[in-house]
Design a protein that fits this description.
Elements: H1 5-15, H2 22-41, H3 54-73, H4 82-95, H5 118-135, H6 139-162, H7 175-187, H8 204-208, E1 226-234, H9 238-245, H10 251-254, E2 258-262, E3 273-280, E4 283-295, E5 299-306, E6 311-322, E7 325-335, H11 339-371
Helix pairs in contact: 2-6, 3-6, 5-6
């Protein structure tokens, strides 16, 4: 019932052909794109200064297009774009998550790069029609505008590839790439991927549309956060499931680490706080929580502090699979400040908390079905 990133990666890599070659994949895309750009530029004749304005306008236009496609087709299921949604949200975002953003082998490039045939489709169904339409007005503008849509496509592929390189790679250390790499890592958070940081090359549209989100990287002095993520499919609606899970007073009913919760009844909204006694990783403790976000039927986030410099971030996300079926995703991030506690986490606590987190979702699935009644079935229509 749970699906970890490691398990998904193993399954995905096993399905990739052993003959797959990322150099041929990337080389074809780059070669085909440059060939199309060269053919378009070969049609230019005595370009006037005003005609060169087509270059920045085309790049801005493509930046807008890729933003809209990424946001509304890559993260919202549309019938005519099911394949793109499945490959992006289903494969790419299941393969990479914060803390696990870098490729580890040649087969991993299969889930980073667009399919090789997509640039052919892009050139024939987007760049070529644009060129033919604008050519009726101005052939130079047509060639410049159409070629820049192909340049934008190649820039997306190159930047996206750089954003999945190890942080120590020389390309990943370039200032602009480093900033975009951080924005892309934040986009890969489950709680942010549908609403933040859709641009890959230049975050202009994210800034204009208010979807830009920035958070500095964790300070080395604070230490990295341990991140655990599990999911389970629950046969109840997304609204009811999240309302139940976001009610901390109910946590002792289904989470094996939660002993007692003091706070208001029902799902808690942003700004509300509560106290919790826990027994996690073999240790007792007390947590003071503050809710940061509650979007009914979609997402709930909270953070907490405890003894030994313990910091936690918890998020619940619900994805509606059907009218009465929900994919529930729980993401827990935590860290200790003292060095001794960090060492204990690596040697002992993490494995125990991992097991407890996985068990909690199985228990949530069971208890939610008892706590959340199904709506009554509609009465059958009787002919008059």
């Amino acid at each position: 019932m749970r699906d970890t990133i490691e398990h998904f990666r193993e399954q995905y890599r096993a399905a990739v052909s052993p003959r797959y070659n990322p150099w041929l994949h990337g080389g074809f895309v780059l070669g085909y794109g440059l060939l199309c750009i060269a053919l378009l530029y070969s049609t230019l004749r005595q370009v006037q200064p005003l005609e060169w304005l087509a270059v920045p306008l085309a790049l801005l236009f493509f930046n807008l297009c890729i933003y809209l496609v990424h946001r509304w087709l890559g993260h919202h299921k549309q019938r005519f774009a099911r394949l793109f949604y499945a490959r992006h949200s289903g494969d790419h975002h299941s393969f990479f998550a914060p803390g696990q953003m870098t490729y580890e082998g040649r087969k991993d490039w299969r889930v980073i790069l667009f399919p090789a045939w997509l640039i052919v489709v892009h050139s024939l169904l987007f760049a070529l029609p644009l060129w033919a339409l604008l050519r009726l007005w101005n052939s130079n503008v047509a060639a410049l505008f159409a070629s820049c849509t192909l340049i934008g496509y190649l820039a997306y592929e190159v930047f996206h590839a750089c954003e999945h390189l190890p942080a120590s790679h020389p390309l990943a250390r370039l200032p602009w790439v480093r900033q975009m790499r951080r924005l892309h890592e934040l986009h890969h958070r489950r709680e942010l991927m549908q609403e933040r940081n859709f641009n890959i090359v230049l975050p202009l549209m994210d800034w204009l549309f208010g979807t830009l989100y920035w958070q500095p990287e964790e300070s080395p002095a604070d230490g990295p956060m341990t991140r655990l993520q599990h999911q389970v499919d629950i046969p109840r609606s997304a609204e009811a499931t999240l309302a139940y899970a976001a009610s901390p007073r109910c946590w002792p009913q289904w989470h094996p680490s939660s002993l007692q919760v003091l706070g208001a009844e029902g799902p808690l909204s942003a700004g509300q706080g509560f106290e919790e006694d826990i027994h996690a990783g073999g240790r007792r403790g007390h947590l003071s929580w503050r809710v940061e976000e509650y979007l009914p039927g979609q997402r709930w986030r909270a953070s907490a502090r405890g003894e030994h410099g313990l910091e936690l971030r918890l998020s619940y996300e619900c994805q509606a699979l059907a009218a009465q079926r929900t994919r529930f995703i729980r993401t827990l991030e935590y860290r200790f400040q003292p060095l001794l506690m960090r060492l204990g986490n690596q040697l002992l606590f993490k494995r125990r908390i991992e097991r407890e987190s996985a068990a909690s979702l199985l228990a949530l699935c069971e208890t939610a079905q008892h706590a959340i009644p199904l709506p009554p079935a509609p009465a059958p229509d009787h002919p008059v």
